[in-house]
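User:
Can I borrow your eye for a moment on a structure tokenisation matter? Would you put together a sequence-and-structure record for a protein of your own picking? Please set it down just below, with no commentary around it:
AI:
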Amino acid sequence: MDVKGKSAVITGGASGIGRATAELLARKGASVVIADLVEAQGVETVKAIESAGGRAVFIKADVTDEDDARRMLELAVNRFGSLDILYNNAGIAVGLPGYPLAEIKRWRRVIDIDLQAVILGCHLAAPMMDPKGGVIVNTASMAGLYPYKEDPVYGAAKAGVVNFTYSLAPWASKRNIRVNCVCPGVVDTPLVRRGIEAAKRAGHTAGIPAKILQPIQIAEAVLRLIEDDNLFGRAIEVRPTGARLVEVPAAPGSRKTS
């Protein structure tokens, strides 16, 4: 897909990976809807995009709320004429104290945002993209590809995103919607910085990596997933050493779908 002239909705778009992706897509000529709960940062991101000559609009939205999620997608259609790209990026971690010491409502919120909101976003976006089609990218994590003892609930949610993405590979032929996911390592975002500082205060430094990715590195991987029409039902892993496509597992006796 050539992103020029297309419209995109980015959840968690006010900062970190979401903001970097919004700015990159806008530079490439896309119109961007930035959905986030942090209004001040969202408005600031829109201003930054507009000052660089791009088109963007902010909407305050809770991605776990069906009405909010529908409004953010409809805003792309009403303001920019179509919904071509959805980037389900919003996410949180359990943090300290971790599972099972964390309050139940806190780790349930992680599942709601990191997994269920992705499923909801795809569900609502698909009929708005049909029959013209489009592209959906979901933010998973390397924690969804490998065991993640530091935050097992976060890892479980992200593993769900990876498998959900694999399972939507048939949408490419049935609905003309390509669904992929990006699996970053540790990224320098406000959420991660707060988590690292909390871990240091608690003396939990073993899981802090020596090298941390920059948001633009993830944004560039997302752009690749959007632009390459041959990619669907795939995960791309991003490490400090570079990005690579992850081999899709196949059930015994079945053929791979991508």
In short: The longest strand covers residues 177-184. The radius of gyration is 17 Å. The chain has one domain: 7-245. The chain has a mean pLDDT of 93.
